[in-house]
């Protein structure tokens, strides 16, 4: 039976804040090398997790050094012939849904809910089919050369990408363009394409696309939008086989923490908006997740 005092939103937010304060937010940790998982987390049936669950499972995978991308409940593991090892601790994921409830006026209304449930990584389970233990390939080292496939991918988004000697990367809402410095000024191509993914995620927020800027226009909108862009860029990067490096200023991090601590649902909204941005870009490019990373 679920604990009636368990607050899903607070639990997730507390974990994310702890990761940021430790200097290892989960959307960065998978790419620092070593044992961190660099694949999109997947359910037992191979279906990708989405939104906030990606961040939660990245965080757990990076903290515990899990190599498998597959996650499942205790019951699902048993049905596959596996056995969770004694003493293993589960991770939390959330499920959204609606229930019908009859009001006093006799009309049915659909009430949204958010429910937590527990899953284990395949690395915590013995006896699963061999494919569940396959470790994902490491992200490609692109070096300093342009990657023609990634160039084609970002061109197919429809975003206007301008390059000049100006040493700044940004999205201009007024001009509706993404500006990038020359790739030669970056230490490596991974940093270039990671930065480009960040700015193209911003690009999805304009009024003619996902209209994110108008929907989130309060005084903390800037910090929130940066959080959306960071998460969205990481989701794009893992699908493209790019290893981004995000060297954001301390002011950004402080802004994220303030927004999260003041609103325990902020990280849920940011992950949801990032997922929408990635879905929009996928629809524009016609690319299947992971296609370019293969």
CATH class bucket of the largest domain: Mainly Alpha
Cα Rg: 20 Å
State the total count of DSSP E strands: 8
SSE order in H/E notation?
HHEHEEEEHEEEHHHHH
The helical percent reads: 25-40%
Overall mean pLDDT score?
Answer: 80
Q: Whole-Å distance between the termini?
A: 42 Å
Number of domains: 2
| Largest sheet: number of strands, sense, barrel closure | 3 strands, antiparallel
Number of helices: 9
Q: How are the strands ordered across the major sheet?
A: 1-4-3
Shape, principal axes of CA atoms: globular
Instruction: Report low-confidence residues grouped into runs of 5 or more.
Output: 29-37
The CATH topology assignment of the largest domain is Arc Repressor Mutant, subunit A
Q: Write the CATH architecture name of the largest domain.
A: Orthogonal Bundle
Report on this model:
The protein is α+β, with helices and mostly antiparallel strands and 294 residues long. It has 2 domains: 8-133, no CATH class; 148-285, Arc Repressor Mutant, subunit A. The protein contains 9 helices and 8 strands. It has helices at residues 8-21, 52-64, 74-79, 148-156, 189-203, 212-215, 221-240, 250-262, 266-285, and strands spanning 71-72, 83-84, 91-102, 108-121, 125-126, 161-163, 170-172, 177-180. It has a 3-stranded antiparallel sheet. Strands 6-8-7 form a 3-stranded mixed sheet, covered by helices on one side. Strands 2-5 form a two-stranded antiparallel ribbon. Strand 3 (91-102) and strand 4 form a beta hairpin. Helix 5 (189-203) crosses helix 7 and helix 7 (221-240) packs across helix 9. The longest helix has 20 residues, at 221-240. Residues 149-272 form the Polyvalent protein metallopeptidase domain.
């Amino acid at each position: 039976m679920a604990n009636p005092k368990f607050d899903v939103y607070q639990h997730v937010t507390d974990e994310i804040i702890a990761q940021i304060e430790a200097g290892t937010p989960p959307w960065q940790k998978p790419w620092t090398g070593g044992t961190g998982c660099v694949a999109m987390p997947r359910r037992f049936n191979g279906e990708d997790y989405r939104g906030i669950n990606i961040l939660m499972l990245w965080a757990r995978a990076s903290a515990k050094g899990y190599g498998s991308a597959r996650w499942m409940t205790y019951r699902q593991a048993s049905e596959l012939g596996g056995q969770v090892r004694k003493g293993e601790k589960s991770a939390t994921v959330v499920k959204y849904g609606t229930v019908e409830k009859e009001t006093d006026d006799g009309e049915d209304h659909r009430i949204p809910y958010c429910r937590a449930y527990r899953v284990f990584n395949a690395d915590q389970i013995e006896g699963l089919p061999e494919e569940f233990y396959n470790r994902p390939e490491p992200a490609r080292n692109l070096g300093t050369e342009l990657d023609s496939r990634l160039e084609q991918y970002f061109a197919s988004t429809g975003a206007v990408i301008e390059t000049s000697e100006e040493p700044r990367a940004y999205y201009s809402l007024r001009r509706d363009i993404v500006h990038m410095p020359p790739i030669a000024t970056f230490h490596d191509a991974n940093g270039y394409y990671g930065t480009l993914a960040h700015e193209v995620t911003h690009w999805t927020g304009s009024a003619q696309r996902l209209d994110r800027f108008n929907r989130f226009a309060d005084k903390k909108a800037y910090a929130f939008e940066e959080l959306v862009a960071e998460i969205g860029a990481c989701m794009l990067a893992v699908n493209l086989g790019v290893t981004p490096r995000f060297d954001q200023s301390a002011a950004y991090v402080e802004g994220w923490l303030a927004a999260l601590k003041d609103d325990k649902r902020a990280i849920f909204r940011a992950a949801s908006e990032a997922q929408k941005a990635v879905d929009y870009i996928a629809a524009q490019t016609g690319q299947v997740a992971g296609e370019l990373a293969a």
